[in-house]
Each structure stands twice: as structure tokens, then as C-alpha cells.
Amino acid sequence: MVLGKGRERNSEHQAPKPIFGDSGGAVIAAIIPIPDRQPTMTVEGAAAASGDQEIIAWFEGVAENAGLVQTQTLRRIIELNHSTEYLQKWLGRDLRVQDLDPVALESLFTSSVPLASHADHEPYIQRIADGDTSPLLTQEPITMLSLSSGTTDGRPKQVPFTRFSCQSSLQIFRLGAAYRSRLFPVRAGGRILEFIYGSKQFQSKGGLTVGTATTHYFASEEFKTRQKSTDSFVCSPYEVISEGDYNQSTYCHLLLGLAFCDQVEVIASTFAYSIVQAFTSFEELWEELCEDLREGTLSTKITSPEMRRAVMGCLTPSASLASKIEKKCRELEESNWSSLIPKLWPNAKYIYSIMTGSMQPYLKKLRHHAGDLALICADYGSTESWIGVNLEPSDPPERATFTVIPTFSYFEFIPLYRRKEQDHSSSVITDDFVEGEPLPLSEVKVGQQYEVVLTTFTGLYRYRLGDVVEVAGFYKGAPKLTFICRRKLILTVNIDKNTERDLQLVVEEGSRLLSQTRAELVDFTSHADLAVHPGHYVIYWEIKGEAEDRILNACSREMDAAFADHGYVVSRKTGSIGPLELRIVESGTFRRILDYCIGNGAAMSQFKTPRCTTNQVLLRILDRCTVKSFWSTAYG
Ligand code: AMP
């Protein structure tokens, strides 16, 4: 555990004027105001709805005063939860919140409560899961736990989930939608073809409902409110979302998307991976889908009775629609499915999904299917808390920024500085950063990278999220963040240190050579093989189409030479790391990896292909599916 020194503040400093009034009672309602008139999606060409204007005006106010709002937000979190076991441990039993002004309280909090990891919160979360109802992390009892995707860390982590989590999901959706509708108006009453998937929920020993955050949200009242308030409904009934078998859900999402094709205004998913998967499946499924549309039937591969009933209730046989789609699909097949989405969904205005960070490698395939349709990056958040909203929807995904919403959590930022080259000799494997003192939102600097730290309404205190972001600028007083990467190192043999982003850049570099062939990269992962001496990096590629060995050899060389990390370069030159190995795996391998992860509790809506693995089952799948190996000659 790392102890933050906290920040000295002048406690005599006058308390900032409360932004939302100061009553402790309606805390959540005050922090996340729900406008009386719900924002609605705009009728094409009409002015933005008053609800949109209202929520934009609210956000502009909190962004303008972001620093003060943060101080107030922290005060409310402490007001609510200061008598919990966790906070009493650090702030003492005698804290009288009302006697301290918010600035003094902020200073006390950051100097007394240590920076913490998930592991520091885990014993409390475990007691909650086991049925301890005393106030451990929050005063209000926690009745649900969320599972973070866990694909970056090997195992899903449980974090508290409360009504606030659903309300903030609804709020960020409305806010983002209000800004989107200024540039990309959509028809009221239109539909969203949204590839969303619930996963199995289960009861913990103490009777709490456990599931992924997206699963809880899709099942919540707030999700229904979102649809009503934006007058835009998903194509699929809840039974399709909640079933838990992503193959069956994908088929039904596609079928209903086709049935409502003229009404679809937006194509969406939580992470872009789901959209790419769905349309890759579409290339195989379209004939069967057309058959079902023509006859008003449903493929026998849909075995869930609830899903069958719900989907059949939405379908009417339409020979003319089926023939029209069939004709388009035959033409699309000829052009390798280029611009598939706008051709089949002619009224779609944009595609909306998280496309940054670990989703960036799927952009090429997404663009292939999207043609000229706008790609809008969805907001930045995590199971633990929403963080930032995309206020500039016309920016391409490569330039997307996320403006921090200062009412959602109390955010701190640990400055990260690159280690100097001579420091690389350290035998202890830490990452490549030296840390500065955590700063409040109002003190971050443009161009600087930080690790995000959260103090949430759901009972996480100074919790290191493990994400690295860069401040790209400010929107009024609120920082605009670029997502850089997960901080965790993935590839390391000895003194070398490479993150997911380093690998992503290297693979991007190497796979550029595939443009000389008729092959494309489908997905990739890696492993640091330490079983033989010297250890070396293995990068697994699944490719679609044929590539000559000569080119693949060059790809392995290119990737080896592209790792810029000083530790890696030195180790390669001295031979303490062996040549990089590129292994080509057979078609469908990453589907098997997905199936394995889903079978072990990962959720399709939050799935991220593990970019490096030490999991023996995954390594067995990868090794069994390897069809060719290429060894780099980059360092002779
Ligand atoms: P989960 O564990 O499923 O809650 O995933 C949360 C993680 O996904 C975050 O901590 C980020 O690493 C990543 N993430 C979420 N939103 C974005 C985004 N807009 N861009 C890039 N990465 C994101």
C-alpha cells in the first residue's frame, strides 16, 4: 500500500459556496440532478430539445466550477459514509463533518486516508459478500456487487454496485446524447441496434446479487428510463439481452436489427469488439437470417424458450424485406462486405461504442463495415465509476477525449514520469514510471500523464484504478483526458517493461506489412515464454486470408525491432532475451478464447481480448492451434 502525503490546504480558507445546496439528505439527487423534462432525441432539423439544453446547461455549470464541485462532491461522500468502518479507521471516530469547511475536509481526507488498491478494499468487500450488513464501506447497505471484466487481470474483481451506479450511467448517457444530437440529430422514435449482453447473475454467500455492471444496468429501471427519455428503443427485447448465451443473443440482435432496418438510427455496443464480432458473424449467418425474416420463423439454434417467445412476438413474415436484404447481401459478399452497415441500415446516423484503448485494433475492421458512417467514441468509465464524457463526438476515435464529470466521484491524479534510461538496471520489475504526489482535478497539467484515483459514492476510497490517462486540455474547469493504457506491465522477461499499449503499437507496426498481401489481422495476444533460456516474447496472430511466409518473417522482424523499451533493446542486443517468435494460429482460435473466457464468467458486453496471457488453458488452446512459427532475425 502506498501512503499519499495528502495536500496541505489552508483550513481557514473560506468554504466554497455550495453548488447544489447543502442538504445531506438528497445527496444523490443533488449530485446527479434528473431534469424535470427528460432530454429527448431531436427530430431531424429541429432545435435541440429543452431537456438536452437543460442537461447541457447543468454540465456547463459544474464544468465551470469543477474544482469546487469536486470539493463538494468529496464532502458529500464523507458526510454519507464517515461512520463506516473503513473511513473511521483513517479519519477517526470523532470526526464532525459539519464542523469542517469542505476545503479543510478535503485536506484532512487526502492526508489521512491512504492511496489504496483493490486488494486493500477486498477484505471489506468479501465481508459484505458474505452477509455482513454493518456499515463497512458505505452507510447504506450494499445489495449488489459488480464484476469488473478481469480480462486484464486474470480474474474478475468484485466492487460494490448501488443505485448511484445506475443513475450515473443514465446521466452520462443523457449528457453524451445531448452533445451528440447537436451534430448528429436522430429521429425521435427511432431505434438503436445495440449489441448488448447481460451475463449470468448469481447470489453471493450473503445473498447479494453479483454480476457485471452492464448486466445490472441493463436490468435496471434506469435503462428503461433511458429508452423512454431519449425516445429511442433498442431493437431487442430484454429476454435477448439477458439470456447469457452471446451466440444466441447476437443472432437475435441481428435478426431484429434487420426486421427494423428502416427505423434504425444508431448502431451501438459498450465496447467496439462486440460490434466487430456481430458483423463478422453476420457474414456467415445472413442466409439463415433472411430465411427467418421471410418465413417469420426463428432458427433452431435459439434454444432459450423465453428468448424464442420474445423474438417471435416481434417478428412478422416479410418476403419482400427478406428478398431486398438477400439481394444486398449478395452484392456485399462480392465486395468483401465493405460498407455493410450503411448498406443494410440506410438510416443509421452513426456507430457509437468505446473504440479507444484496447479497442483500437478493431477500428480497421469496424471502418471496413462502417464505410462513411461516423464512428463516435463512447464515454470513459469503469465498473468502479464513470469518469469522462465525450463532448466532441465528431472527433475521430484516434483523437477522442473524455471530459471528467466532477459530480460522479472525487478524482485524483498521480503524475507519472518516465524513468531515466540508466534506471533500467533495477532487477525489481516495477513499471516504467516514477510517481509524483497525487493531485486534485484542478491542479492537473496539459500534456502530463497520470494514473486515475477514485473516491466513489459506492465505498471505494482513494482507489487506484490502474488506468493511465493524459490531459489533452480543459473544458472550462474540467480536464479533458485521453486514454493511454492500463498501467500494468504485460510483457517482461528480465529488465524489459512493456504495457498493453506498447504491444499494440508494435503489432500495428508489424501488421502494416500485411497490406502487401490479401490477409488481414483478426486478433492477437502474447506471452513471455520463460520456459526456455533465454526467455523470449511470443506473439500470436490470427489472420484471415493468405500471407506468404516471406512476409510473415518480415512481420516478426519488424515487431521485434519495434519494441522501443530500452530494457528490451539492451536485452535483445546482449542476447539475454531471445528472438521474438510470431505464431500464426488457425482461423477461429480467438473465438475459442472468447468462449473460454465467457464460460468462466467474463461478459460479452465488457469483453476485452487478453493481450498477454499466462493462463495455461489459453496457452494450450493457442499452442494447439498454432499452424506456423516465424523467428525474428532483427538482432542477428
Ligand atoms: P471493466 O473492467 O469492464 O469495468 O472495464 C473498465 C476499463 O475499460 C477501464 O478501466 C479502462 O481501462 C477501459 N475503458 C473504459 N472506457 C474506455 C474508453 N472510453 N477508452 C478506453 N478504455 C476504456
Low-confidence stretches: 1-30, 34-48
User: What fraction of the residues are assigned to beta strands by DSSP?
Assistant: 15-25%
Q: What is the straight-line distance between the termini? A: 43 Å
Sheet with the most strands, sense and barrel status: 9 strands, antiparallel
Question: How does the helix and strand content classify structurally?
Answer: alpha+beta
Global geometry: globular
Bound molecules: adenosine monophosphate
Number of separate strands: 24
What would you report as the Rg, rounded to the nearest angstrom?
25 Å
Average pLDDT for all residues: 88
Treating each run of at least 4 consecutive H or I residues as one helix, how many helices? 21
Q: What's the helical proportion of residues?
A: 25-40%
What does this structure look like?
The protein is of the alpha+beta class and about 625 residues long. Among the domains are: about 185-350, no CATH class; about 490-630. The strands form 5 sheets. Strands 10, 11, 12, 13, 14, 15, 16, 17 and 18 form a 9-stranded antiparallel beta sheet that branches. β16 (about 450-455) and β17 form a beta hairpin. The longest helix has 24 residues, at about 270-295. It binds adenosine monophosphate (AMP). Adenosine monophosphate binds near residues 382, 383, 486 and 606. Belongs to the IAA-amido conjugating enzyme family.
